[in-house]
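It is worth pausing here to work through a concrete case rather than discussing structure prediction in the abstract. The textbook approach is simple: state the sequence, then state the predicted structure, then interpret. We follow exactly that order.
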Amino acid sequence: MSKRNLIASAVIGAFALGSSQVVSADPLTDLHNEEAKIHAAAAQSQKKINSIYEQTQELLAEYRQVIDETENLKVYNDHVARLVADQEAAIASLQRQIDGIEGVKRGVVPLMYRMIDALEQFIELDVPVSYESRKERVAHLRDLMSRSNVTTSEQFRQVLEAYQIENEYGSRINSYQGQLEFEGRTIAADFFALGRTALLALSLDQKNAWIWNNDSRSWEALGDEYLSSAVTAVRMARKLVPVDLIKLPIKAAE
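Step two, the predicted structure:
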């Protein structure tokens, strides 16, 4: 071959070799690129998986919390149901009592009127200790029974209270001022009550004394021998002197 042909062959061979290297380098680059993309996609997928896992754990925790709350609510609901059942039973009992109130009233109201009548009769037959205030109490009870703004229970309470006050008159010693009628005269006096055992009256000038005779329903004059005892009795009732033995004309029990 001539030199020109050799050079041409060499150049062609060099081009061929270079072309082969370029062709062989492109698939390798693509492979690296694809591998990088795969890794990037895998990393992205892993992030998604991690995110989904975290969400799943949160949902699982919420689910468990809901389950716990559901159990608690079930126990609480059972408790409330028992309370409601008990309240319904109590309401039913109260309703039965309310339904029976009218029947009770129909029995209590006549009883109160009989109690007031009996109290008034008792005061008229009893030793007239604090007579005027006791009569006023009975009048107040009668007025109370005719007032529509006073409940039956309050009326009954005050009737019982009046009976309790009457009961106390028989067990206490007291003194008060008032007036007595004796031989057509109205006399201002200090009264001394020894329960229902004795009722004395002492004139304000302490010169005369009387004792109540419940059999004759009248006052009787006391002799001078009882005058000092009457004075001492009034003073003892007012706690002006110590309690001591005194001489009084007490009627013997039958």
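Step three, interpretation. The chain has a mean pLDDT of 85. The chain is about 65% helix and 15% strand.
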